[in-house]
Input
Amino acid sequence: MAEELQTATDKLEDEHYPAYTMGRAAEMLGTTPGFLRSLDEVKLLVPQRSRGGHRRYSRYQLRLATRVRALVDEGTGLEAACRIVILEDQLEEARRINAEHSSHQPER
Output
């Protein structure tokens, strides 16, 4: 039982765990399921599928979708907004890796 509880806790803390249905994700973002499907079509988000074939989104994916929606609301085209978000995400990851790598370097 403790093992099951730990697994549930891990899932709740895992930003990549696909916890949200399309309807719930759209509600949380204040958008439509169609908007989320469009992000799937342009391959920004590739949601996992439930056993029944329903899309499931993670918190990480919802953060990306939120940023795309903000850019689209400002007048940026969908594909350009997706590209911007991808580049921002890659830059953030590169900075994180660089900071991690730098912290392990011995001082000279």
Observations:
- The chain has one domain: 13-103.
- The longest helix spans residues 78-103.
- The chain has five helices and three strands.
